[in-house]
Amino acid sequence: MPNSKPMLQVALDTLSFEEAFRILGGGLDNVVDIIEVGTLLLLGEGLRAVDILRTIYPQKVLAADFKCVAPHFGTEILKHDPDLVTVLSRAEAQVPRLIHEEALKRGKGQQVQIELYDQTPTVEDIHTWQQVGITHIIYSRPRSRPGSWGAEDREEIKTLCDLGMQVTATGGVTYEDVDVLAGLPIFAIICGRSMRNAPDPAAEARRIKQKIASLWK
Questions:
Q1: Is residue 151 part of a domain?
Q2: Rounded-to-integer distance, Cα 114 and Cα 117, Å
Q3: Are the beta carbons of 205 and 32 closer than 8 angstroms?
Q4: Which of 69, 30, 24, 76 is nearest to 50 (CA)?
């Protein structure tokens, strides 16, 4: 799923399908590149949320943000055919490896994403993930970091990219924050509240995608 500019991902962190479909309706589902079955939606509706969204959007990149901390969690989620599944960076070392191996066995191109959780990975951590074939990190801006996105976040993402990782950026990203990421070779930008809570989510998604197109020429 490589791309010359970041893809736009919507995080469906809602507790019900009704709210999720209200957000996707009106054209947002056609604008975004990746639909994320958010952790809250998985808690509220279960893994059938992945099944239903996969059935409705068979050609859309689908992410299941379960934040796995045990191998069998990932094994079960992969059976529901998301393209991407998240594993917390603080999980024991064998967890992402075993889920990645299961994804390879399935032969459907599914990928494990390591989600950073208030943690800056060491070079050794990166090499460990790369050695087992995992090259995708979700950079989640630390909640404890004050203010909005800035130079410190950009530098940390650039370092991860320079180490050979595909990076997805998340953490309250807004239209204005996209400027901070301009030109970085990142995989995707996740927008949750900034699109979900917009008066017209589809229009806001189009606005963000237009900015991405202008900044990654």
A1: yes
A2: 9
A3: yes
A4: 76
- Asked if residues 176 and 148 have their Cβ atoms less than 8 Å apart, the reply is yes
With beta carbons less than 8 A apart as the criterion, state whether 113 and 168 touch.
Answer: yes
Residue span of the structural domain in which 157 resides? 7-215
In a domain, 2, yes or no: no
Q: Radius of gyration (Cα) for the chain, nearest Å?
A: 16
CB-facing half-sphere around the CA of 159: CA atoms within 13 A: 12
Q: Say if 1 falls within a structural domain.
A: no
Residue 194's pLDDT is what?
A: 93
Q: Mean pLDDT across the stretch 72-97?
A: 96
Q: Is residue 89 part of a domain?
A: yes
Residues 7 and 33 sit within 8 Å (Cβ to Cβ):
yes
Distances in whole angstroms, Cα of residue 42 to Cα of each of 9, 101, 179, 192:
17, 23, 31, 15
Which pair of structure tokens corresponds to residue 86?
A: 């998240």
205 near 186, Cβ under 8 Å? Answer: no
- Distance CA(71)–CA(88), nearest Å, equals 11
Residue 58 burial by Cβ neighbours in a 10 Å radius (0-12, 13-18, 19+): exposed
**8 A C-beta contact, residue 135 and residue 169:** no
The number of distinct structural domains making up the chain is: 1
Report if pTM > 0.85. yes
CATH value at residue 103: 3.20.20.70
Query: What percentage of the chain reaches a pLDDT higher than 70?
Result: 99
Q: How far apart are CA 215 and CA 132, in angstroms?
A: 33
